[in-house]
Amino acid sequence: MNAHAGHIAETAPHYVPTDAAWGGAALRSFFRVAEHWDLRVAEQRKLLGDPPESTFYKWKREQTGGLGRDTLERISYLLGIWKALQILFPDPAQADAWLRKPNAASLFGGHSALERMLSGNVADLFVVRQYLDAQRG
User: Fold this and answer.
1) pTM of the full predicted structure?
2) pLDDT (tens digit, 0 to 9) for every residue of the chain, 137 residues total?
3) 25 in a domain, yes or no?
4) How far apart are CA 121 and CA 129, in angstroms?
5) 102 lies in a domain?
């Protein structure tokens, strides 16, 4: 690297987005998906990691703010699940309804994907997303 390039690299601001920078967009996206999926408040809270009621309603009202890494990870999986369903099912209503339908796949054991996702474990969100990604090929 020449001296000029090294100087630019040293003085250029290092922008690394913080969790707070992603919070607003993540929350707005989550609440749109929750509306499509017709999720009750209790289901929304569980999927977000069971934040206190006051925190949840503040997020819902303001749709901005810093989120912890766990909450951002959860929203990321949920958005991936939503997107995979939109790809797998050409009819948006069918894609949204899939979540609540009983599923014979072994990882669901005859229960719906939503039931699995509502266990409270972030790993279950990952498993559902992984399953849908595998179905997409």
Assistant:
1) 0.83
2) 444 444 444 444 444 455 556 788 999 999 999 999 999 999 999 999 999 999 999 999 988 778 889 999 999 999 999 999 999 998 999 999 999 999 999 999 999 999 999 998 999 999 999 999 999 88
3) yes
4) 13
5) yes
